[in-house]
């Protein structure tokens, strides 16, 4: 967030695709600027998909990480720094497994 502007991450956006969305302090959508998705950068935020049903996980570490995400964030966006602060370590492979299975969504930097 820069000043009073928010960046929206839209599901299904591809490289070079533009969006014209913004928000004011009451979070109502109004056009304020343009942005585009760059897929060559590191992922900044993650969120658990609200509509996903039960998906069986094979990795016990992925199950443990999903329990931590459910307990602390539910469907709110989070970054890896937040997991570090909760005391999680060696979670990158588990997080990748959750992303690959569709339980957690990845948000790229603008």
Secondary-structure map with pairings?
Layout: E1 18-19, E2 35-36, E3 43-48, H1 60-72, H2 80-85, H3 92-100, E4 104-108
Antiparallel strand pairs: 1-2, 3-4
Helix pairs in contact: 1-3
Characterization of this structure:
It is a single chain. With 110 residues, this protein is an alpha+beta fold. It has 3 helices and 4 strands. The protein has helices spanning 60-72, 80-85, 92-100; strands at 18-19, 35-36, 43-48, 104-108. The chain has a two-stranded antiparallel ribbon. A two-stranded antiparallel sheet has the order 3-4. The radius of gyration is 15 Å and the shape is globular. The termini are close together. Mean pLDDT is 74; it is low at 1-6 and 15-30.
Strand content: 5-15%
Radius of gyration: 15 Å
| Element-by-element helix/strand order | EEEHHHE
Runs with pLDDT <50, length 5+? Answer: 1-6, 15-30
Give the % helix.
Answer: 25-40%
Strand order of the largest sheet: 1-2
């Amino acid at each position: 967030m820069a000043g009073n502007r928010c960046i929206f991450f839209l599901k299904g956006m591809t490289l070079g695709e533009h969006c014209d969305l913004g928000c004011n302090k009451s979070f109502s959508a109004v056009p304020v600027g343009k942005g585009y998705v760059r897929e060559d950068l590191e992922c900044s935020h993650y969120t658990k998909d609200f509509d996903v049903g039960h998906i069986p996980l094979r990795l016990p570490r992925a199950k443990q990480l999903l329990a931590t995400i459910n307990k602390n964030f539910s469907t709110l966006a989070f970054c890896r720094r937040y997991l570090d602060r909760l005391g999680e370590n060696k979670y990158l492979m588990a997080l990748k497994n959750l992303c690959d299975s569709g339980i957690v969504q990845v948000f790229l930097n603008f």
